[in-house]
């Protein structure tokens, strides 16, 4: 199996193993935490059963991430990324524990929502640090392999953590103690991630040049200019800017599909009054997406070396278009599961290629800012998708016209990106590959 062969190739890299362990454990804890939030925000009987309610909840959760992103870029280019992984996870342990305490003593108060936003914002910061750190422990042809494995298996770890949280919720009696128990377990897993990060050398993950306190304050004070410089660098390098642009489009369209799937699971394929049945249906849709993610980790390392990352992105967008075109005619659960698996393959396959392009074609001094901009675009696109879903989706989540538009959007993205990639001079592309 290709994934096993890829792991065997990467396994001799000691620092890769350490960073990989941090990602798996950290994302497992995050999956536990997010399942608790999903139950609270979307699958409580009194919560978010309408398109506007679901879209609003997503906007509230994701808007702070677009604010965190730019600051993350400045810090990741100046702070030791290993320290970010260590202290970021420790901070999440404290925040999650406080949320658990508030849940036991007071219930789901506004403070829970505020602390949840803080926790999720820190997680996005950690994911950016993990991505920016990867080229420090893997280089050459193995970087594509690492990019194929680490995000996808990290997502699998998150799904596994979510499954543990879901099962825990089914076993324990309903009430505040059950909610707090899942959070306490998530905090324990985050503490393990911090301990694993401590095994990595303080300077191993870069960056090469770091700033003292005065320089850091100056950098934060000139944040806008730093981001502009990072964006200018990406544009000058051409391929990373184009890759980020198509990923933003992909994420926007995917966000609309995700919210539609949640509403279809809750209000069309299940009794709207039975929140547990809706959650179970949506879990099956997420499971199908997970199958697509795993398919991406197997196919991407096999196909990309033969056709190149740009062509692979075009193929993924084409597959996404087909997955949505099918839903124009049918919306039964089996059809939706097949479409979810295909879209999961397309989304993860494209993301692996984009990650590789951005990491390969961006100088290390700008890499933290590149992934911060990536993070902003990634989440802002989903917020935009939430706004569109609130305006256009019925509460059942199903609209033939909207799914037709989504299919057309993916197809247009494939055509435009493919044409732009073909216009890139061969000399420029060879220079990028040599970096």
Automatic annotation (TrEMBL):
**Which keywords does this chain's UniProt record carry?**
Cell membrane, Membrane, Transmembrane, Transmembrane helix
Bilayer topology term: Multi-pass membrane protein
Gene3D superfamilies named among the record's database cross-references: MFS general substrate transporter like domains
Annotated localization: Cell membrane
Major localisation: membrane
Question: TM spans, by residue?
Answer: 20-43, 49-72, 142-168, 180-200, 243-265, 277-299, 336-358, 370-392, 398-420
Lineage: superkingdom: Bacteria
Report what the protein is called: MFS transporter
From which source organism is this entry? Cellulomonas alba
């Amino acid at each position: 199996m290709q994934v096993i062969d890829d792991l065997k190739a990467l396994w001799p890299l000691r620092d890769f193993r350490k960073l990989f362990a941090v990602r798996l454990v950290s994302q497992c804890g995050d999956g536990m935490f997010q399942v608790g939030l999903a139950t609270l925000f979307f699958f409580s009987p009194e919560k978010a059963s309408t398109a506007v309610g679901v879209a609003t909840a997503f906007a509230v959760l994701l808007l702070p991430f677009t604010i965190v992103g730019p600051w993350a870029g400045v810090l990741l280019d100046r702070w030791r990324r290993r320290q970010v992984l260590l202290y970021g996870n420790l901070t999440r342990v404290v925040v999650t524990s406080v949320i658990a305490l508030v849940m036991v003593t007071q219930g789901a108060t506004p403070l829970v929502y505020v602390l949840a936003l803080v926790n999720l914002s820190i997680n996005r910061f950690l994911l950016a640090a993990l991505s920016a750190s990867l080229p420090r422990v893997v280089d050459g042809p193995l970087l594509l392999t690492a990019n194929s494995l680490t995000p996808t298996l990290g997502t699998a770890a998150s799904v596994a953590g979510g499954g543990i949280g879901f099962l825990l919720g089914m076993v324990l009696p309903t009430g505040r103690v059950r909610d707090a128990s899942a959070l306490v377990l998530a905090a324990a897993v985050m503490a393990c991630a911090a301990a694993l990060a401590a095994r990595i050398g303080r300077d191993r993950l870069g960056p090469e040049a770091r700033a003292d306190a005065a320089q850091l304050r100056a950098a934060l004070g000139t944040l806008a200019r730093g981001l502009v410089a990072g964006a200018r660098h990406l544009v000058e390098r051409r391929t990373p800017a184009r890759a980020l642009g198509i990923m933003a489009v992909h994420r926007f369209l995917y966000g609309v599909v995700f919210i539609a799937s949640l509403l279809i699971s809750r209000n069309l394929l299940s009794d709207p009054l039975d929140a547990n049945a809706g959650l179970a249906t949506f879990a099956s849709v997420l499971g199908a997406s997970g199958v697509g993610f795993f398919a991406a980790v197997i196919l991407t390392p096999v196909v990309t070396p033969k056709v190149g990352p740009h062509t692979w992105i075009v193929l993924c967008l084409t597959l996404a278009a087909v997955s949505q075109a099918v839903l124009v005619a049918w919306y039964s659960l089996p059809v939706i599961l097949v479409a979810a698996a295909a879209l999961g393959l397309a989304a993860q396959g494209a993301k692996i290629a984009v990650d590789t392009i951005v990491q390969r074609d961006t100088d290390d001094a700008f890499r933290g800012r590149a992934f911060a901009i990536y993070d902003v675009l990634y989440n802002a696109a989903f917020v935009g998708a939430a706004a569109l879903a609130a305006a256009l989706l019925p509460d059942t989540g199903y609209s033939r016209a909207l799914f037709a538009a989504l299919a057309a959007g993916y197809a247009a993205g494939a055509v435009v990106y493919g044409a732009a990639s073909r216009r890139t001079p061969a000399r420029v592309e060879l220079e990028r590959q040599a970096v």
